[in-house]
Amino acid sequence: MSSHNLSRRQFLRLAGLSVTATAIVACVPPTAPQQQAAGEKAPVGEQVNISFMGWGGPGESQAVLDMIDRFEGENPDIKVSWLHTPQDYMPKLMSMVAAATPPDTLFTPQDFYHTFCRDGLMMDIQDQLDADPVLNDPNYFLQPQEDRRSAYNGRWHGIGVCWVGQHMFYNADMFVDAGIEPPTTDPDKAWSWDHFLEVARELTLDDNGNHPYDSGFDPDNIVQWGVNWSATGGHFLASVPYMNGVLPLNPETNKFQYDDPAAVDALQKVADLTNLHYVSPRSSNFNDLGMSVTQMLESRKVAMHIGGTYELTWTHLIEATLGVATPPKMKQTGAILVADVRGAMAATKHPEAAYKWVRMTGDPVYQSTFLKIGLWWPNQTSLMTPEGLNSWIDERKSPTEGVHPPGYYELVDKYVRNHTDSWICPPDFPEAQQIITSSLEGLWNGNKTAQEAVQDAVPAANEVLAKGASS
Asked: Does CATH place domain 8-163+339-392 in 3.40.250.10?
């Protein structure tokens, strides 16, 4: 559809999906700016006020405010209001859209982006990009993944500002105390799955000091786990089959492939860490301890954690020696990369000002601001050169100096560059993905095998994608 007015059916579908979207955000956003009548623009020469809605922790929010100050200094006729929404982002966004008071510009989660484009919610910016001598340079963004993400039907409706994926965090002090060689940032030397499992067992203890392979080990009274693996949804889930050589979503057919035998094997391996080998905690263990995974890593409750790039923003502050590494390999080590797209909504009454702000979020200075605090990986070619990497990687010289742990340069230069892939989230992707993640809950809690979890869910999810492509 070409109109930016959602039907009731579309709104209810998107609003329902937004409740189950990845938790990216804790306060109610400020009241959206009053909108002028449809199609009306501010008089020439008057100051324009636009809004920018997004999530993020305190560090990211402050960085956004700093970049707004910079932008307003360069564009004194434009004021940007930051609608910081660190909780319930999608339900609040959809409520604003339904009330005809949407933000002018926003973080658009990648899994919703193509659905929004199809439904006419996003402003087409292709003509502005075509006239832009900098962003239109074919070597500006890392390609072809950026065009695959930001283009819908061959036209961009937003700009991807980064990539995020998974890697390993670990408490280096625990490895020293156990006399175990820690994992590496070199993907060519990534641990085999068997070695990873052996180390995870060695670093898992019950309250009597027994390991999972010891006689008398008590799986109901574990006090230290070898690893925590975030794999229940989003790019974390997508990375599991990828590590066994299977793209979770076939880019040619736009069909999920979680039911591929290698994908099933990979899913079972990760679930077995908790349900068979007892080396990874359940969600109930976090609730019982009242700790986040970062706190468990700091307090030696967990030795390793497979988590998101952005977690470094707060994890680098722990009072322990933090290390990072590539994940272990099945057939390979690697990750599926995702990130939000910065765009303007089609309903904005200030398209020129909105585009100027969106364009600025594609500027190397903007991206570097967030790279330096440990939040992102680059999607711009210049920031992946040796000079570019050195411009934002601040490797730690002590537990209190620097953000990026030793080896981070190698992690980005070799792992991110050569062992990652991105995926397109086609229209109605969130609805389809939810069918799979809901069914996989039985796998993670030990009530289903991987084969049982995917055998009906994947065909049902692919049917949703097929309908989305034809609507």
From this structure: no
Provide the pLDDT confidence category of residue 45 given band limits of 50, 70 and 90. Answer: low
Residue located via tokens 């990750």 = 335
Integer-rounded Cα radius of gyration of the chain? 23
Q: Parallel, antiparallel, or unpaired: how do β-strands 335-337 and 420-422 relate?
A: parallel
CA dihedral 268, 329, 172, 395 (to 10 degrees): -130
Using left for φ > 0, alpha for ψ between -120 and 50, and beta otherwise, residue 137 falls in beta
**C-alpha to C-alpha distances, 355 to 124, 155, 345, 359, 468, nearest whole angstrom:** 10, 15, 10, 6, 28
User: Which listed CATH number (3.30.70.120, 1.20.1250.20, 3.40.190.10, 3.30.565.10) goes with 166-337+425-470?
Assistant: 3.40.190.10
- What's the number of CA atoms in the CB half-sphere (13 Å) around residue 380? 24
Region of 100 on the Ramachandran plot (φ > 0 left; ψ -120 to 50 alpha; else beta):
left
- Give the domain ranges of the chain: 8-163+339-392, 166-337+425-470
| Residue 465 and residue 444 in contact, taking contact as beta carbons nearer than 8 Å | no
Instruction: Give the three-class secondary structure for 323.
Output: strand
Give residue-wise pLDDT tens across range 154-211: 999 999 999 999 999 999 999 999 999 999 999 999 999 999 999 999 999 999 999 9
Amino acid at residue number 265: D
Q: Report d(CA 218, CA 222) in Å as an integer.
A: 7
With tokens 């397109």, the residue in question is 424
Query: Tokens 């980064």 — which residue?
Result: 162
Determine the pLDDT at residue 150.
94
* Residue at 369: amino acid letter: T
- Asked if 8-163+339-392 and 166-337+425-470 have one fold, the answer is yes
- Note the pLDDT tens digit of each residue in 301-318: 999 999 999 999 999 999
| Contacts of 191-196 spanning 24+ positions with Cβ under 8 A | 191/328, 191/329, 192/328, 192/329, 193/269, 193/328, 193/329, 193/330, 195/328, 196/227, 196/328
